[in-house]
Amino acid sequence: MGTPEKLTIDDVAKYCGCSRATVSRVMNHDKRVRPETAEAVEAAMEKLGYHPNSMARALSAGKTNTVAVVVPEKWQEQPYYIKLIDAIEDVADSRGYNIILKRRKYIDSVSELVNRKQVDGVIFRNMEETGKELALYGKMERMGLPFILIGKPVSTYPFIKVDNVGGARAVASYLAEEGYKKILFIKGPELHVDSIDRLAGLKIGLSEKGFNLDNLFLSDGDYSTESGYHAAKEYFAKNKADAVFAANDRMALGVLLYCRENGIKVPEELGIVGFDDNFFAEYLTPSLTTVKPPMYEIGIVAMESLIRMIENSERPNIRVILPAELIIRESCRAGMKPDKKT
Amino acid sequence: MGTPEKLTIDDVAKYCGCSRATVSRVMNHDKRVRPETAEAVEAAMEKLGYHPNSMARALSAGKTNTVAVVVPEKWQEQPYYIKLIDAIEDVADSRGYNIILKRRKYIDSVSELVNRKQVDGVIFRNMEETGKELALYGKMERMGLPFILIGKPVSTYPFIKVDNVGGARAVASYLAEEGYKKILFIKGPELHVDSIDRLAGLKIGLSEKGFNLDNLFLSDGDYSTESGYHAAKEYFAKNKADAVFAANDRMALGVLLYCRENGIKVPEELGIVGFDDNFFAEYLTPSLTTVKPPMYEIGIVAMESLIRMIENSERPNIRVILPAELIIRESCRAGMKPDKKT
DNA sequence: CTGAAAGCGCTTACAG
DNA sequence: CTGAAAGCGCTTACAG
Q1: Is the pLDDT of residue B62 over 70?
Q2: Nearest nucleotide from residue A10 CA, by C1' atom
Q3: What is the pLDDT of residues A136-170, one digit of tens each?
C-alpha cells in the first residue's frame, strides 16, 4: 500500500544500506552497478513505493523529458491534427516523454518554456511564420535546443512535410486517365507554398499524361469555403469545365455547394477533387475525392527525430518529405467520363 | 540581445547589489519588497535577459504550474474535444499554467506524473471508469492532489457535466410542439449514463407537453453509426414513426443513411435528431438537428475550478451541470409537421 | 524591508 | 563497483 509520506532517494539508500549515488545509478540503469546490488535496490524501491521526484531529477540532470508541440490557432478546422498529436504522443510515451500542447497564439508562452528550460525540444507546425516564430527558432538554435518544423521549411532548420507536388500529380494522372478534358484549379492564398506546390504537381502530372495545359484554368481562392463557392460562381458564369481541383477541401466544399444550388450534378457533370482529407470529406453528399496527408506518419517521424536530436545532441540534417495518398470517393470517381476517354 | 550564457538568480543579485532572496521575492511579487528595490531588480532582470529556471523553482516551491488533461482514446471521433482543450489552455495560459495532454490509454503515465510530483492537478474526461481510474482517483485524493472529472461523476469527487436531461427535454418540447406523434428513441450502450439521462429528459419533456408515452418507442444501439442504421432498419421493417431521436449523432447518421438508401425523405417523412453536435452534423445532407454540449464552457469552468483547488488548497464541493443547446438544422426543422399539429 | 542559511531531491564528476 | 561531496537554481522560514 505505502503510506503517503514522502519518500526520497535517501530513504531508499538507507533501507538498502547503500549510498544515494548507487540508488540513483540503479534508477538510471547505469551499467557499473553490481547486478545483486541493483536487484536489491529495485526491490526496495518497489517495496517502499518510491518514485523519484521529476523536478529534482530535471534540475540536476538538466533534462525535463518534456517537449512542446505547437499547433495552429484554428486546429479545430483540421482534426487531422488529432492524428498528428496521437502519433507524437505514441512515440513520446514509449520513450518516456511528455508533451505540452500549445496553440500558436500562445507562442510567447512557448518562448518562456524555452527560456526557463522547461522543455527539451519543440515541434512546430509551421505555416506562414511571423517574426515571432523566426525569433524563437533563432533563439533555440543559439541555445542548442532541438526543434523541428512540420510543414513549410525555414532556413536550414530540420523539417518534415507532405509531398504536395506528388499528391497533386496523382490527382493529375487520375483526371487525365479518366478522360477529363477541361480542368479548373482553384488556388489558395497568393504565395502560399502548399498551393503553389499543388499547382506545380498538377501541371507536371497533366503534362506527362499528354494533357494540353491550355485546358487548365486557374481561379483565385483563399482556402475558405466561401472563396471556393465564389471561384466556381465566377468561373462557371462564362466558362465550362468537367473537373475542378481545389487546393484544399474547404474550397472544394464551396464548389460542391455552388453545384448543389445550381443543379450541376456531381460527379456526372462535374468532377470535384480537394486536398487534405478534411474531417467532413467523407460525410458530404457526394463524398469528396481528395488527397490525404500522412499526418500520423509525420507525427511519428517528427517525434522520433526530435528525440534523436535531444538524446544524441547531434544536429542531423533532417529534411523529410512524406507521400500523400489520393482518396477516391464519389465526387470524382472512375468511369464518370468514359465517353471522353482518349 | 543577451549572450547565451546561463544566468542565475545570483547573477541578478550580484548585479543589483542585493541578495538572492530579494530577487526571488521580486519575481514572486512579494509585497514586502521596497518599491524602488523591486524596480531596480526588475530592470536588472530585463537588462541581463534573465529567466528563472522552472525546474529549480518547482523543486523548491513544490509546485510545477503544470496540469495533465486526460482525453478518451478515440477523441478523434469527437473533435469537440478540441474546444474543450482550447478552453482549458485559454485559462491555463492566463494563469501561468501549462497542460500536458494524455490519452486514456496512457493512464499509467498519468499515474507516474502524479507519483513523481510532475503535475499540480489533473482534469479527467471520465466516461466509464475502470479500476485503474478509480485507483488513480483514490491515490490523488489521499495525496491531496486536486483533480476534476468531466462527464460521469464518481463517488464524491468534483465533477462538471453536461445537462443531458435538460438537452433531451428541449428536444422533446420541440418535437411535441411541432406536432410529431410517434417517436423512436435509439439508446446508447446499456447502462451508459448519458443515454439514460437523455431518455429520461425525453420522457419528462414529452410528458409535460401532454404527449402520450405509448407513442414513444425504444430501440437498442451502441453509439456506432452501424447500430443506428440497424436500429432503423429493424424498427421500420414493421413499424412507423415520424421522428427519430438518437442518443448520439453517429447513430442519427446511421438512421439518415438508412433513409437515404430506402427513399425515406428527411425531414419531410421523418424528422431526425441527434445529440453531441458532432463535427459532421452541419455537413450532412440534410444537416443534422442536434443538441450541442457546451464544451468550451466546460473547459473554462474545469480549469478555473482546478486552479482554485490548487492555489487555495481548498476542497470545494464542485458539482457543476452546464446546459446544452438545441441546434435546429434541416433534418428536423420547424413546420414539417403542420398537418399533425394539435 | 532585507539577508544568511538551510533545504528542495536528485545527478555526477572525482576518488578509491 | 561504490561512496562522499559538491552542485543544479531556486524558495522560505528565521532573524533582524
Answers
A1: yes
A2: C9
A3: 999 999 999 999 999 999 999 999 999 999 999 99
B135 touches chain A (CB under 8 A): no
Cβ-based neighbour number of residue A185 at 10 Å: 26
How many residues does the structure list for chain A?
Answer: 342
Counts for chain A of helices (H) and strands (E), in that order:
12, 12
B4: pLDDT strictly greater than 60? no
Give dist(CA B165, CA B172) in Å, integer: 10
What residue has cell string 500536458?
B100
A48 CB contact with strand C at below 7 Å: no
> What are φ and ψ of residue B327, in 5° steps?
-110, 110
- Count Cβ atoms below 10 Å from residue B212 Cβ, excluding itself: 10
Q: Which residues contact A216 (CB under 8 A, 6 or more apart)?
A: A183, A185, A202, A203, A206
Q: Tell me: the pLDDT tens digits for A234-257? A: 999 999 999 999 999 999 999 999
User: What is the spatial distance between Cα B250 and Cα B268, in angstroms, rounded to a whole number?
Assistant: 21
Q: Give A251-299 pLDDT, tens digit per residue.
A: 999 999 999 999 999 999 999 999 999 888 988 989 999 999 999 999 9
Cβ distance B51 to A4 less than 8 Å, yes or no, reads: no
Residue tagged 499547433 (cell numbers) = A71
Determine the Cα–Cα distance for residues A54 and B54; give it in Å rounded to an integer: 12
Q: Flag whether residue B1 sits within 8 Å of chain A, measured between CB atoms.
A: no
The CA-atom distances, in angstroms, between B61 and each of A119, A219, A275, B54, B65 are: 19, 59, 50, 10, 10
Task: Spell out which residues of chain B touch residue A77, defining contact as CB-CB under 8 Å.
Answer: none
Give all domains of chain B, ordered by start, each with its CATH number. Answer: 9-52 (1.10.260.40), 66-162+295-323 (3.40.50.2300), 165-292+327-340 (3.40.50.2300)
Nearest of B146, B201, B142, B143 to residue B174 by alpha carbon: B201
Q: Cell triple for residue A157?
A: 532548420
The helix (H) or strand (E) run that includes residue B100 is strand B98-103
Helix, strand, coil content of chain A in percent (nearest 5): 50, 15, 35
Which triple of cell numbers denotes residue A45? 524501491
Residue B2 has a pLDDT of 39
